[in-house]
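Exercise 7.
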Amino acid sequence: MKFDLRSLNRFLLLKIPIARLAGIRVVRLDDKACELTLRHRWLNQNPFGSVYFGVLVMGGELATGIPLFKAVNDSGRKISMLVKSHRSEFLKKATGRIRFVFDDMEDLNWNLQTALQSGEKHAFELHSRALDEQGETVATFSYLWSVKCYC
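Solution. The predicted structure, written as tokens, is:
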């Protein structure tokens, strides 16, 4: 798979249509960070006038999962990846345009290399955050990913 923005957004449409329907879009993926956006709108709102927490959790997970998926793909090895658990903290209402940011590629790459070298299941946490238009954090997310290399 190509990992340019157009291909990633097409991937969301075809493989995770609920994310695309909710309005999540990939706007950046490089060797430093992954960033997704979401605009608060009628389809993804809760009854209290902000983005539904499930949509926020989905954006937070994708912000960590897309770079991991790319790193697994780039390794050229057969590797399974699975979210084992997650924690979320919601700090304020999510309205307007929300950015999901993951910027710890070094940790991701170190953990993936550890998994490749050991050949065993390896679990590690990746963290992302959701920011509003003013740059204030509206939510933080921690995902426990498990990877296993079938080398």
